[in-house]
Backbone:
């Protein structure tokens, strides 16, 4: 599954028919920003509403409240969590970074297989591909062992997956809910979004959180959705990402965040909003079994260690102890209500205030004394972020930003939203890096779907402060994450982990990136890099044509940065 899509611009003007805009960021608001007048926008929205038949969500939905399981002390995972934190003080949690896609998928599958009481999963995307089906099959298998399974998925990319979700939900011990559903269920993504524009202020708010919890004892959160490209299993391109595995008090805080979304007013039982006639439960289970039957089992490479020198989580779980670092962890989660529209706002409900996750990061930047290292696939800074980074730089901190180049981004329009800020970022004294296009090494092809080599795209969302604190989570350093999406992340106080994370970025990502700087003689910007022991300098966006640069730069001028 490709988790980005083409825009609706073709429906507005033939001259924009070939443009590729990202559906999750722009297509919902394309009418307001790509037409000549708001009057025309309003007329088109009325016409689309008539086509949609004024589609609306059901108003009499019954939601049975439930909470995270706390009677888990007797579970195997609870015992392993305790054994993994010997002698740790009460408020400390155990943390392990998961830099590799294989290791991150292995950790989820192994935890699901070991769960005895409960699994709670919350994702922006669960794709209908090999990884998505293997993940859902593991949830099904857990439910058949008597484990309570709660799956909460954002609705934007869930359309078209009704058969899979209905089949999972038809099993005993499983409940599936969908966050902030579009009022139109049938058709492709673009059709659904277009026919939902009469509720634009609501449907523009998306749940971007990524969270997996097993027996309320271990949790995984970070930047990865559930799809092949997040686990190094996609042939065209894969995302370079980061998750964290946790045990201890932070897990209970993450469970509280999950419960708030699960029981919130924007989470709908799947059965209440599924398109068409509901199949009989027995038939739905049979169809699900057929869809997941011939996938094979995920098998991590035996004996391999990740980029930080740690072995597979599944192997360590089987041995009864996971390698964790004791640390003070602050869970930062945007409130469910952030995903509700601001009264009278037809443009998506953004009132200019940051959510809790962005606010925590900006506060962290301002505390820096020696170093701020920011990694984000999409970097569209708001004035308060520029102010926070300027404060850090003027206080003596070395500021570095690592993001995608135009050649590696999957969001070209967002890239040009960022590009207009590059000179301001450099002017505050920051060092700026953009990832170079290069193949990411991947395991040899296996029946599980893994292949051998693809374009690497940055997707990790990280910040390291003074090599003592670090942030990891779902939030991009852009305005949409700040004002519109709901996000989830961790602020961790651990010199050991912060140091190895900074070293990993400097060792693997910075040398594989263009260094962007002002061109002293020519004016404008230049992109320098080392290859074959020689320094090369480019004076235009690398690996791009003049037509591409013109098209996206012109479009970036007419799209509000708060939507990027």
Residues:
């Amino acid at each position: 599954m490709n988790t980005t899509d083409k825009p609706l611009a073709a429906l507005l003007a033939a001259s924009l028919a070939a443009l590729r805009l990202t559906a999750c960021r722009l297509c919902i608001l394309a009418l307001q920003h790509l037409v000549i007048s708001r009057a025309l926008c309003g007329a088109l929205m009325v016409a689309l509403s008539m086509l949609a038949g004024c589609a609306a969500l059901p108003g009499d939905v019954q939601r049975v409240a439930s909470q995270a399981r706390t009677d888990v002390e007797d579970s195997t995972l609870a015992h392993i969590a305790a054994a993994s934190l010997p002698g740790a003080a009460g408020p400390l949690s155990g943390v392990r970074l998961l830099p590799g896609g294989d290791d991150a998928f292995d950790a989820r599958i192994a935890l699901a297989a070991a769960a005895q009481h409960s699994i709670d999963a919350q994702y922006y995307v669960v794709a209908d591909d090999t990884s998505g089906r293997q993940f859902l099959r593991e949830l099904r298998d857990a439910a058949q062992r008597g484990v309570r399974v709660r799956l909460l998925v954002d609705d934007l990319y869930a359309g078209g997956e009704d058969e899979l979700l209905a089949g999972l939900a038809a099993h005993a011990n499983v409940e599936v809910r969908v966050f902030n559903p579009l009022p139109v269920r049938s058709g492709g993504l673009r059709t659904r979004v277009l026919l939902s524009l009469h509720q634009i202020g609501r449907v523009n708010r998306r749940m971007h959180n990524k969270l997996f919890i097993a027996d309320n004892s271990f949790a995984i959160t970070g930047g990865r959705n559930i799809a092949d490209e997040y686990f190094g299993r996609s042939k065209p391109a894969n995302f370079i990402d980061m998750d964290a595995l946790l045990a201890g008090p932070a897990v209970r805080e993450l469970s509280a965040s999950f419960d708030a979304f699960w029981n919130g007013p924007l989470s709908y039982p799947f059965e209440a909003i599924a398109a068409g006639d509901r199949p009989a439960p027995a038939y739905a289970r049979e169809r699900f079994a057929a869809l997941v039957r011939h996938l094979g089992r995920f098998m991590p490479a035996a004996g391999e260690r990740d980029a930080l020198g740690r072995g597979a989580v599944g192997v360590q779980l089987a041995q009864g102890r996971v390698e964790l670092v004791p640390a003070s962890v602050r869970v930062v989660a945007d409130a469910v209500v952030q995903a509700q529209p601001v009264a009278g706002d037809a443009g998506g409900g953004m009132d200019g205030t940051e959510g809790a996750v962005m606010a925590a990061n900006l506060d962290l930047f301002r505390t820096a004394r020696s170093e701020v290292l920011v990694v984000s696939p999409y970097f569209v800074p708001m004035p308060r972020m520029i102010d926070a980074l300027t404060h850090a730089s003027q206080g003596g901190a070395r500021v570095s930003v690592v993001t995608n180049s135009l050649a590696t981004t999957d969001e070209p329009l967002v890239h040009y939203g960022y590009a207009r800020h590059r000179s301001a970022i450099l002017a505050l004294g920051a060092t700026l890096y953009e990832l170079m296009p290069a193949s990411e090494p991947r395991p040899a092809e296996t029946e599980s779907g893994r292949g051998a080599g693809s374009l690497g795209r940055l997707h990790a969302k990280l910040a390291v402060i003074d090599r003592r604190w670090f942030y990891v989570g779902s939030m991009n350093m852009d305005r949409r994450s700040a004002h519109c999406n709901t996000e989830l992340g961790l602020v961790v106080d651990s010199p050991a982990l912060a140091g190895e994370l900074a070293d990993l970025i400097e060792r693997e990502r910075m040398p594989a990136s263009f260094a962007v700087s002002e061109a002293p003689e020519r004016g404008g910007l230049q992109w320098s890099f080392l290859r074959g022991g020689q320094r090369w300098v480019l004076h235009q966006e690398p690996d791009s044509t003049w037509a591409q640069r013109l098209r996206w730069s012109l479009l970036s001028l007419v799209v509000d940065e708060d939507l990027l």
About this structure: The radius of gyration is 23 Å.
